[in-house]
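We treat protein structure as text, and this decision shapes the records that our systems exchange. The remainder of this section carries one protein's record, kept here as part of the documentation:
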Amino acid sequence: MSAGDPTLISPAARDALQRWLDGLGALEGAADNTLAAYRGDVVEFLSFMSLHFGAPQGLGALRQITTADMRAWMASARSSGTGARSLARKLSAVKKFYGWLAKREGFEPTAVLSTRAPKFQKKLPRPLDQDAARAMIDTVELQSQKDWVSARDVAVVTLLYGCGLRISEALGLLGKDAPLPATLRIKGKGGKERVVPVLPAAQQAVERYLALSPHPKEAHLPLFRGVRGGALHARMIQGVMADARRQLGLPATATPHALRHSFATHLLEAGGDLRAIQELLGHASLSTTQAYTAVDTAHLMEVYARAHPKA
C-alpha cells in the first residue's frame, strides 16, 4: 500500500472530501479537471497520514495534525520525486480542504494552514513573437487536404491568438454564437464570465469555415465539428499545431495555450493596460496577469543588450 490509495482513508474523511468537492462544483463552478486534481492531491495527503499513524484517520484525528506531521508528508513527497512546484500545488489543495473542514468541524487548522510551500522558480509564459504567431496561423492552414478542415483549424487558432481564448473556450462555442458578434461573452474557469472583443479577422475566419463545412450549423451543437460531425477535440488542434511548429522550427512550447500568452504579451508590448488585459484573459487575480510584465521586461532587456553600445 502507498500514499494515494483511497482505501487507506476512513469513511468519515472520504465523505468529508466528497462533500467539499461537491460544494466546489455546485457553488463555485469548479471545472471537472480541477476537482479531479484536488481529489487526487487530498487523497494522497490523507492516505499518507493513515500510513504515517498506522491506521485510517477519522475526522477527530485529522484535527490533531501537527507541523511535524506536515513536514513528514512533504519530505515523503519530495523523496518520492515530487517537484517543488507540484508539491506547492498539492499543499494548496490540502489547505483549501482543511480550511473548509475546520469551519464545519469547529477546530483550529493552524498547523496545516501555516505550512510554507517550497520555493520554486516560477515559469514565465512562453509566447511566440508576432511573426511566429502569424506564421503559425498560415502554416496551420496547410496541414489538411480538406479545405473545410483547414478553414476550421485556422478559425480556432485565430480565436486563440486574436481573442486570447483558452482552447476549451474556443471549442465550447456553439452554433448559436455564429456569426460572431463584435464582442463575445465567455464563461471561463470557475464559471467566471468575461466579455472579449472579436477581431474582424476572427469573424471572417469563422465565416469561411462555416461556408465550407459539410456539417450544417445547429444552434445547440458545437460550432467547431470533427470530420464525422461530432465535437472537435482539443487534441486535434494540438496535433495540427505540433505539425506546424515542426515545419517552422519552433520549440515545443509553441502550443495552443502559447497563442493565448502571445495575445496578452503583444497587447502589453503595444501599451495595453494590465488591468484591462486581466479582464480580457479572465484572470481572477492580477498577480497572474503580472507574469506577462516579466515577459515584456525580458524582451526589453534582450533588445537593450543587442542594441545599446554600452550593454
User: Anything to note?
Assistant: The chain has a mean pLDDT of 83. The CA atoms of residues 278 and 302 lie 25 Å apart. Strands lie at 183-187, 193-197.
